[in-house]
Amino acid sequence: MNIEQFKHIYFRLPVIARLLLTIVIVMLVFGSVIHLVEPEQFPTIFDGIWWAIVTGSTVGYGDYVPLSTAGRLIGILLILTGGGVITFYIALFSAFTVKHEKDLSDGKVAYQGMNHIVFVGWNERTKKLIEITKKHKQKTEIILIDQTLTNVPYQQYPIHFIKGDATDDIVLEKANIKHASRVVITADATNNERQADHFTILATVAIRGNNREVPIIVEILTTNQVENAIRAGANTVLRPNDFISSLLYHELYKTKSKPFETIIQLLANNQLHHYELPKELEDKPFLYVLQEFKKDDCLLIGIIRDNEWKLNPKAELKLIKNDILVTLESW
Q: Where in the numbering of this chain does the RCK N-terminal domain appear (predicted)?
């Protein structure tokens, strides 16, 4: 490698890498020179390099000391050059750390991991989802994409924030969408329902274009956009308005039922679980399997057969191989 090639490679390195390389070169040079000038005081090149690092970093153990005038002059040059370089490196590294933390909070740092969950949209539902996920799946990495937030303190929220539009391929690449395990898109409460659904569908198209396999769960607010969301590539479409309207109806015409808030709390304190049908329960009626699961305080509410949900099926329905059992359990 000639000097021009070295310069080309050197100046293409990041600032911290260049500075670290400079320190290494300076320590090697001074360590080698002091060994040649005072071989009795510094028997090996390694001893000279050790002295150069200790002196240049201003630690000064005193185990190796130059005695000749030439050696002391080398020491003075080392303190003036190497000491300054090391001090500058430490200051620059500290500034880089502070900047990196700020960039994390501001959503400017790309995510490099895999098998993570990507949330699109920041709202109360997202906060609750993050809280529940971290409570029960502590090792799960969560990536948040949002264009309305200015920053998210990563010390306060255990997530990796990416600021930007989820319909933009560059933003999706920063979230490493190609290696995500699943994606959840929540409706933007700051827009009207139609605008919120249009954004959700566009984001679904963009995500599906970058990852053909990842499961995408979306929240759609208007009925006429459900089919469009499915065409766009959504695997699961949730209609929260229908669910809330149903609860409101039952609350409106309740007799002595519990308050509406209590119903919501009851649902919040339970979660759905999926189980493959055990071999010993194959060809058994639904009622029998329900009773078996209830012994373990699991409420069997339905099955998934051939990707079709069957909630509260008939008691005599025979369960077959590859059926997925859906249960409701306490957190």
A: 114-239
Taking the mean position of all CA atoms in its chain, how far away is CA 227?
Answer: 30
> Residue 160 is inside which H or E element, if any?
strand 160-163
Please return the burial class of 188, using the count of CB atoms within 10 Å of its CB with bins 0-12, 13-18 and 19+. Answer: buried
When comparing pLDDT for 39 and 81, which is higher? 39
pLDDT in tens, 116-151: 999 999 888 888 888 888 877 878 899 999 998 888
State the residue range of the domain holding 100. 3-104
Question: Residue 187: what residue type?
Answer: A
Q: Are residues 179 and 62 in the same domain?
A: no
- Extract the tokens encoding 142: 């969560």
Can you say how many angstroms the Cα of residue 71 is from the centroid of all Cα atoms in its chain?
54
Long-range contacts of 74-79 (CB under 8 A, 24+ apart): 74/30, 74/33, 74/34, 74/37, 75/34, 77/30, 78/26, 78/30, 78/52, 79/55
Tokens of 211: 């990852």
| Distance from C-alpha of 55 to C-alpha of 38, rounded to nearest angstrom | 16
Q: Note the pTM of the prediction, 2 decimals.
A: 0.61
